[in-house]
Amino acid sequence: MVLRQGKRVREHYATLVHWIEAAKLEATRQEEILLTPSIQIALRRSKENRAHWRDDWAMVRSSVVEQGICMYYLANESMYGHQEVEANIVAQLQMCRFSEMVASPLHRSAMAMLAAPRIAFLGHGHALDSEVSKRLRFIQRRYGKRWHLVHWLGRHSAWTAHDWALSERMPVTYVGEPGMRMISEGLDLFARTVDHVVLFDDRDKKVHDQLCAELRQRGKIVDLVGLGSFIEQPSESQEGVGCAAEDLPSTAADQSTRKKVALQPDLFGS
């Protein structure tokens, strides 16, 4: 989910070709590819806009493709494991000028990423960005690039880790609905989707002690990050509120300009 005019929106790509060709362009021009009705037109528009391609495309293209393949399968779980789907993805990569010798290994790499640990960050809506960054670096040292983010959309959601993951071209699984509480059905849903949770909590108030215990009872790894106090700073989803995209305060757009925001949209259509 990306920030557009102060609102969180989930953008849908018709095909992997649309994803790749849009990712080549500067962020302000990606909709020129997104809105095209066919692969052929997407390829032509991308070629026509070659002057506006990202300067670092040669360096990031492999990770963009891997992320796109992961996102396709996350949005279309029924397609996972079918040889004909893999063949279609490889064929689309070839349309984007990836040889079969390159395309097949990229698909295998994406499959390995999908099988990697699924990690969620919770409760960091009012934590300093430096604290969140420290924990992200720790996860990176532990798992390298072989993990993907689970983003909780319900209460206690925040966007710092999410936006970092997209900017690093990592896959993201979205769980829950705005306003959903992490109890009963919500907790069961979340626990089925995650392997490892980084949970931020006020060291004195210990708001999330019960949640921490229940996740551990379900066999999940929980890293509890104790903070002396939460830092009041504008954020896109205040702790415990679970705002919907349409309800984001205007200050979120101002704050987001000071954060690292992903260039690529995140999900395909079915």
Characterization of this structure:
- This protein is of the alpha/beta class.
- It contains eleven helices and nine strands.
- It has helices spanning 16-24, 31-34, 39-48, 57-75, 83-95, 100-114, 129-143, 160-167, 185-193, 209-217, 250-256; strands at 2-4, 7-9, 12-13, 118-122, 148-152, 172-175, 196-202, 221-227, 267-268.
- The strands form three sheets. A five-stranded parallel β-sheet has the order 6-5-4-7-8, with helices on both faces. Strands 1-2 form a two-stranded antiparallel sheet. A two-stranded parallel sheet has the order 3-9.
- Strand 1 and strand 2 form a beta hairpin.
- Helix 5 (83-95) packs across helix 6.
- The protein is elongated.
- Mean pLDDT is 81; it is low at 229-270.
